[in-house]
Design a protein that fits this description.
Layout lengths: L4 E3 L2 E2 L2 E2 L6 E7 L4 E8 L2 H20 L2 H30 L3 H18 L2 H4 L4 E6 L2 E9 L2 E5 L7 H12 L3 E5 L6 H12 L7 E3 L4 H9 L3 E7 L2 H13 L3 E5 L4 E5 L5 H13 L9 E7 L3 H12 L19 H16 L3 E4 L18 E4 L6 H4 L6 E7 L2 H10 L2 E2 L1 E5 L3 H10 L4 E4 L15 E2 L2 E2 L6 H7 L1 E9 L17
Parallel strand pairs: 1-5, 8-9, 8-11, 9-10, 11-12, 13-14, 13-19, 14-17, 16-17, 19-20
Antiparallel strand pairs: 2-3, 4-5, 6-7, 7-23, 12-22, 15-16, 18-21
Helix pairs in contact: 1-7, 2-3, 2-6, 3-5, 9-10
The protein binds nicotinamide-adenine-dinucleotide.
Length: 499
């Protein structure tokens, strides 16, 4: 067994040279070996980093749009050149297969490409002669030091939902990645210096609750962009807003795929397997509840079962379809739902515990698992499991399916599979979910639209990236201006009116 590598903060453009009071182990989930030891930031270190970010911000806020977009273009090129290396880091610490890791980096890259257009995105409006010889115009200005706190499941992409836009808008960023798989985010953050970003504008602090709380309560942190589980998202939203910050906190999910009887069942089965088991179900947009409108459930389940039999689970570097879960604790938690499902009356159709794995060592594997006859009230249905467990819920009609989806407390993503355009359009209008797919099982919006759920899947008003991202990371200002001449003279204490 090799010695675990030290993983530390990135402060003022350099790896931190101090000694951490607390550390946390990082594992390779495909082998179970400890690969790293991560320095955890204390509240006082976070305070130092915020101060240095605040001083770096003053210069960056004054950088021209041309300078900022130049850095964004350079960052985009560097990330594109290094995407294979970043993907390898993701697979080594998260466990997802390499092709999936590469897909994640590419989706993050798209946000950097969107942010390259910042001169256009930050353009204000101008109204000449709003009143006689009076012009009115709007401008958007950066917030200052902004914090990004990310989850383990997209260690590179989720930070990039926010960071390129925040930097392009003229802010200084402090990223707190997940302590389970921090290396990819740190490697991406290091590219900003190479791209020409001044030191201190992009900093990384690693840590747990202590570091998060220090960011949430620090007076010089102006906004918090959080992604993670619903209870923590709610806590982050409440604490951050109570401390005067602008907060967008994206939470957990329970995504339903509604299959109508007229759908192409082969394509629906492919989609359910891809969206249910890709990345071992550790995606906030994974399909976890397949809602089959009768009489198609038996046929659909049989097609899904056939496809599941062809999937290979194992070490993500070997060309398998699905990798391990992120930690042994998480694998055990997901596995506990299998026993609970059986005891609560669901039918275990495919048991992932009985499969074998392509791996050397003691990885945290659970192969794809399928349940039938799942109902609300069962923990399989009610909880976000975040693993390779697909539950089929049988319903008698489209209306019953829609009511089921709208009764769920989460509202991140959903999909309808049908060849009936009218049914799809009604679904899109009536479903209470933030991101909707029509024959698309994982409807993650492209970077120039915004990503975000409804209900318990997002706390705050603003979704990630797209124009909502630009608005989140800037403040609006409206200027009313005139150039005085003698015709403006005289006393008048009335409220100004336009003439
Ligand atoms: P998590 O909530 O455990 O951790 C997220 C972040 O919060 C991490 O940086 C972690 O260090 C920090 N954190 C953990 N406990 C904390 C505490 N007590 N106080 C303050 N900070 C704390 O989430 P995770 O397990 O890393 O990620 C999986 C979850 O994220 C799932 O629920 C998934 O649905 C959700 N997710 C949501 C989206 C979305 O867009 N809605 C996207 C990705 C992941």
């Amino acid at each position: 067994m090799s010695t675990p590598t030290r993983i530390t903060h990135l402060i003022d453009g350099q790896p931190w040279s101090g000694t951490a009071e607390r550390t946390s182990p990082v594992f390779n989930p495909a082998t179970g070996e400890q690969s790293g030891v991560l320095d955890l930031a204390s509240a006082s270190l976070v305070d130092e980093v915020v101060k240095s970010a605040a001083s770096a911000w003053e210069e960056w806020a004054d950088a021209s749009l041309a300078k900022r977009s130049g850095v964004l273009f350079a960052f985009r090129e560097l990330l594109n050149d290094r995407k294979q290396d970043i993907a390898a880091l993701i697979t080594a610490e998260h466990g997802k297969v390499l092709s999936d890791a590469l897909g994640e980096v590419t989706r993050g890259l798209e946000v950097a490409e969107f942010a390259c257009g910042i001169p256009h995105l930050m353009r204000g409006g101008f109204s000449e002669n709003a009143s006689t010889n009076v012009d009115v115009y709007s401008i958007r200005q950066p917030l200052g030091v902004v914090a990004v706190i990310s989850p383990f499941n997209f260690p590179a992409m989720v930070p990039m939902w926010f960071i390129p836009i925040a930097i392009a808008c003229g802010n200084a960023v402090i990223l707190k990645p997940s302590e389970k798989d921090p290396s990819a985010a740190i490697a991406v953050a290091a590219l900003w210096k190479e791209a020409g970003l001044p030191d201190g504008v992009m900093q990384v602090v690693n840590g747990d609750k202590e570091a998060v709380d220090a960011l949430l309560t620090h007076p010089d942190v102006k906004s918090v962009s959080f992604v993670g589980s619903t209870p923590i998202a709610k806590y982050v939203y409440e604490t951050g807003t109570a401390h005067g910050k602008r907060v967008q906190a994206l939470g957990g999910a329970k995504n339903h795929m509604l299959v109508l009887p007229d759908a192409d069942l082969d394509l629906a089965a492919d989609a359910a397997v891809n969206a249910g088991f890709g990345s071992a179900g550790e995606r906030c947009m994974a399909i976890s509840a397949l809602v089959a409108v009768e009489p198609i459930a038996d046929e659909l389940i049989s097609k899904i079962k056939d496809r599941m039999g062809k999937l290979v689970t194992g070490d993500g570097t070997r060309g398998c379809d699905m990798g391990p879960l992120v930690t042994s604790q998480h694998r055990d938690k997901v596995t506990s739902y299998l026993d609970a499902g059986v005891s609560e009356g669901a039918t275990l159709v495919v048991d992932g515990r009985q499969d074998s794995y392509e791996s050397d060592g003691e990885g945290y594997f659970l192969a794809p698992t399928l349940f039938d006859h799942v109902k609300p009230g069962m923990s399989l249905y009610d909880d976000e499991i975040f693993g390779p467990v697909l539950s089929v819920v049988r319903v008698g009609s489209y209306d019953e399916g829609l009511t089921l989806i709208n009764s769920n407390p989460y509202g991140n993503g959903t999909a309808i599979f049908t060849n009936d355009g009218g049914a799809a359009r009604t679904f899109q209008r009536k479903v209470e979910v933030g991101m909707v797919g029509v024959n698309v099982p994982i409807p993650v919006p492209v970077s120039y639209y915004s990503f975000g759920g409804w209900k318990n899947s997002l706390f705050g008003d603003t979704h990630a990236h797209g124009m909502e991202g630009v608005h989140f990371f800037t403040r609006g200002k409206v200027v009313t201006s005139r150039w005085l001449d003698p015709s403006h003279g005289g006393l008048n204490l009335g409220f100004p009116q336009n003439d």
